[in-house]
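re the bet — no i am not wrong, look at it urself. input seq straight from the record:
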Amino acid sequence: MVASPHADKFAACLRMLKDRSGRGYDRLGKEAGVSGSSLHRYCSGLSVPTDYRVVHAFAKVCGASAEELREVHRLWALADTDRDTPAVTEEADPGPAKPAGPEPLATEPAPDDITPPEPVPGEPARPRRFRVPETLTSRFAVLAAAVVVTLVAGLVWLPAGAPAGASPARDDRLLYSPACESVSMGQHDACVREVQTLLTRAKGRLAVDGDFGPETLRRLTAFQVLAGVPARSVVDDATKKALYGHTVSMATWSPARVTKRIRAVFVEDPDTAVAIARCSSFLDPLWVLPNTNGSRNWGVFQISDASLRELDGTPLRAFDPEWNIEAAHRLWSVRRDFHDWPSCEAALKDTPKH
């Protein structure tokens, strides 16, 4: 892996957490469910883990706060993005430049009747006439035809009811401007701010700062699922139309309501279930976690794509906290433990129950 500023910052953050914990790599690895040698590589900046759950578990056993966990996730997402950044290749030499100036005009052969005949004695002189060369005549004909086609095309595309000569209607929505043709991860500009503003109007919870980071990616992915458009992690035309349509609501349950429902469903071990959900999603029903293999985890209990297939679920159903909590309980019931959440379970082993 090629080192990058984002990977260096990510590794520095992990080292800070490790040093603050006062524990060695082997002990931290055992508690986080990963080898000590792997942790050493991550903290040294030699590699970036492909699965964020390992990072999350490590940060938790190091005592990271909720704010620190968000920062660790942000740094990991940026470092992971650099992993797939293609190398810049040199452009081919276009060769010597052509000299500036207009192209030379092809010479036309002189017509044989350009010189008038000698006048006949006793006859009145006829006016001098010149014949236009056939090549020039054909060029004028082509030019005239092009002008006619352009005028006809302009009339055909003129909006119905618009007077002749009127300018076409302009779309003032920022995301449809050439500057916002593509909006994606790592971007920082007015286009991102417009996306964030539209997401907050749809009741999405995120900061409007113009920075397309992990928080914006999560909310955008959730919005795309709720809107029924492909969750491609970029703001494409279908997403723009849905954002400006103002028909999608991202309003959902509060953490308090989520907690109450988890306790009601996981009657066998309510405290651990709430702790697992808080570790997985901060009790956010619309939480999305992308993985480097293209899969994602969804909702309160971060149910994976593979588990969704087993449970006959979809990402849209996983965003329903009622369905998500019930589905998590079904997974728990297989062995009556939290083996489907190994990272959080390892992080919570030494956490006292409340």
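see?? The mean pLDDT is 80. told u. also The beta strands are 288-290, 296-298, 303-304. so pay up
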